[in-house]
Fold:
Amino acid sequence: MANTEPTKITSIFPKRRQDMWRWDGWGYKDSQLAYRNGTVTFVGDRYPLAGRLDNFRDWVFDMFKIHPSQTNEAATLPTEFPEPKRNEEFLAALKDYGIDFSEDGMDRIMRSHGQTLQDVQNMRVHNFKRLPDVVVWPACHEQVVRLVKLAEDHDIVLIPVGGNTSVSLASTTPQIYDRTIAVLDMTQMNRMLWISKENMTACFEVGVIGQDIERELNKHGYTLGHEPDSHEFSSLGGWIATRASGMKKNRYGNIEDIVKRIKMVTTKGVLEKQFTAPRYSIGPDFDHVMFGSEGTLGVITEAVVQIRRVPDVRHYESLVFPNFESGVRCLREVAEKRLQPTSIRLIDNIQFKCATLLDPAGGVFTGVKEFFKEFYLSKLCGFDIDRIAAATVMFEGDAESVAIHEKQIFAIAKKHGAIRGGEKNGKKGYQLTFVVAYIRDFCWDLNIVGESFETAVPWDKCLTLYNNVRACLKRELAKRGIQYYAISGRVTQSYDLGCCVYFYLLFKHLDDPAMSLKMFMEIEDAARDEILACGGTLSHHHGVGKLRSKWYPAVVSQVGVGLYRAVKQELDPNNIFAAGNLLGENQNVSKL
Structure:
C-alpha cells in the first residue's frame, strides 16, 4: 500500500546559498583546510579530519617546494555585478503566476558555475564571463510547465540546475548575450510525493539533494544507496541528467538502474512513460533520452526510484597489496566471480602515501607501514613501501551474509598477496572521499593545480591505460618545464566488463594562476586523447558538458550526432534549453 501524501523535505539548500556554501570553491563555508598556528588544520567538525596535519604540511613543502603558510589572500566578495538582460514581460508573468525569482547579483553568481578549477578561478578573480539574468525557483511540476511555455513565448534560455556540482562545465552559464538567460534552481522542488513499501519504490521531485533523500527514506527504514562523491550537495535531477554513478553501485546500481520512471517537461509537452513496471518491451526506451541529456532537451521534474531496506550491518575493511597491479587483478577476479561488495576502491601508491598524511593519529593505514618495515620487508621481503597499493571495502547486508562475503573477499585478496588493513582504516579511507575537493581548493590557494578526471575501460586495457596516461602526463609536464608534481590513480567502480579509472594531477610551476590553469587544460586535453587512444571512454559518470564536447562526435559517431540533433529538433526546435552541453556552445549562438 503506497503512502500517497506528499512530504515536504527541509532542504539543506537555502535559497540564499551564499549563507551556507562557499561562493568561490567547494562545500560548506564552515569547513576548510587552513594554515593555522604553524600547521595545516581542517576547520569544522563535519568530517572525520581534525587536529594538526603536520605530515601533510611537510609533504606539501617537500613535494612542491612551497610552504603552506604562503597561501594567497582570500578572494574578495564581489560587490558589483554585470547588469542583467531583463525581459520585462517574462518577469511580469512570473509575478502573475506567483513563481519566485531573484535578480540579486550573488544569487546569480551562486548558480552560474560548477566546480571545475576553471569555475573556481573565474569566481576568485571576478571573471564573470556570463551570469544568468534571473534565478527562478519553481515550486512544482505545474510551475515548470508554465515556465517552459513562458520561455517559448518570450525567447528565454532556460538552464535547470541542482547543486551546481558539475565538473564538466555543464552548469556553467553559456556565453549567450542576445537572449535573457533564466536559471531554474530546482532545489526547492524536493518533496517525496509518495512511497510504496510493497513495491519498494518512491517518487521524488528531482530537486531533492542526496543527503536529504537518505535522511527522509531512513525515517521509513529505507535507503536509495546512491552515493557519489558529491552526495552531500548534488541532486536527483543532476544525477539523472549526467548518468551518475555512486560509490555503492555494486549493491544498489548506477542511477539508470535505480530510476524506474522519469517525467520531463519539453517545449512540446511532457515526456513520461504511462506506467511503472519492472521491465517492458515497447520499442526504444525514451527514459534513456533523458538520462545524460545534461539540460539540453527539457526540465526533469519527477522520478520514481527503487528503494532498499536499510541494511542490518555495514562493515568497513581495508586491504593492502604489494602493488597496484596485484590490486587490479584482485578486483578483476572479484568481479568475474560476481562477488563485488557494496564498495571496493583501489588506490595506487601515491594516494596510499597521501592518505597517511591526512590523519593526525599517524595515518589512514595506521601502523601498517611499520608492520611492513619490520615484518614483511625484513622477513618475507614481499613488500616495497614505494609500491604498496590499498583498497577500501564496504560490506552491507545481514550479519551472516556479510561474514560469508568477507571471507570470500579476503580469500581472493590473499591469493593476490594482500593483507587486511583493518576496519578503522577502511572507514576513514572511504570517508576521506568527501574532503578531496576541500584539499583541491587549499592547494589552489597555494597556486598548486589539483584536479581529477575519469574514464571507464575494459579489464584487458586497464593497466595499459593507467600506465600510458601517467606516462603521457609526465611528458606533457616535462614539455612545459614543470618539475614539481604528483600523479596518481585509482579504480573506483568495477563491472563484469571493466572498471572506472580516476587520475589525479597536482603540480606547482608558476605563481600565475591563469597560466597554470591554461597549462593544466592543455595537459588534460592530451591525457584525454591518450585515454581514448587506449580504449577508454570520454567519461564514466561526470558527463560531457562543455569541457569534453569537442570529442563527443568522435565517440558517438556522426550518425549518433545526427540522431541527437533530431531529438533536439523535435523536443526543442527553438533552442530554449541552450545549455551548450554535449555538442558545445556553437549550437546555442543561433537557434537550431
The mean pLDDT is 93. The longest strand covers residues 484-494. Residues 206 and 331 are 34 Å apart (CA to CA).
